[in-house]
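Suppose a colleague, Dr. K., hands you the sequence of a protein chain of 355 amino acids and asks what its three-dimensional shape might be. Before reaching for any lab equipment, you can write down a predicted structure in token form. Begin with the sequence itself:
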Amino acid sequence: MIYSIAHVNLARTLRGGERQTILLIKFLKLLHPDLQQYLICRKNSEILKFTTHIKDLTVIEISSRLQGHLKLANKAQIISAHEAKAVHWASIHHLLYRTPFTITRRVPQQIKNTYFNALNYENAARVIAISDRIKDEILQSFNGKLHLHDKTTLIYSALSHISANNDTVKALREHYQGLTVFGHIGAYVDKHKGQKVLIEAGIKFLAKYPNTRFILLGKGKDEEELKELTRNYPQFEWLGFKNNVIDYIEAMDIFLFPSRNEGLGSTLLDVMDHNVPIIASNVDGIPEIIHHEKTGLLHENGNSEDLYDNMCRLCNDNALKETLITNAKNSLSTFTPEYMAKCYSRMYEDILSSK
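The predicted structure, expressed as tokens, is then:
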């Protein structure tokens, strides 16, 4: 039986990995009401704003990687590292206190073959991949010299199960009444999320279908450049970061996700849960969620012409829209936060029983 877990997430901003960390903490508590949980995070990080409502969560804020070890000491039976910097912190804590730790890997690239990385993964009790693509990359890392097969497991990320605000959704739908609304949610970082591909396809689409709006939620280093590319096209609305993304999802007709690389794309799960058809790039872990012509449409990675063709196709085929929505909704049973929490819980208990 597990009675204490320390989650480590040292990211400064709030992105998919941080949302998944919060979901796991929340649903582990629902699964185990007596569970004591700790969160190790950076001072003033955005994750703090979203954890105040979680019962019995003890937060340890640190300003450098070396802080916090004495505060946590042996209070936790197991440590979960949820992003790269957290891995280093958990590994050091393991060396100091022999506390077993797990690593959740969320990016679809091989791990850099350095001595410290090899030590971290060698000492980890388990390595979790959020997609099969990431699992393959983990197993191919370190030139196959580490024995990671027996300790690497697949646990998918989860949808959020957040309800929309009906009044806000109504207002948004009235605002965009009579328009076809394409939506996108993601950091304004083109080399990751591929907004330039969306812009190219969108400008071409507007020439044929002018009664269209593109609403893009997020923030990031490319914001000014992306806005400049659409300066002459007011149909592109860069709305910035929104806490109530579900309200905006429900105001969308079609969701576009042209990521150039993506571990899984947990945002897609929320879009599917709220009955919006999806067009996404065929890359990395995305095809594990979006099955072409079944739960969504896939376009060639980086190919704006292919994206444009899929946009035209879906806009003119209501039967296909309904098929994709229904199939997507029916495919979500292994992507619920309850299921994710149960998978982590079983893994933690297995580690502790082995110990």
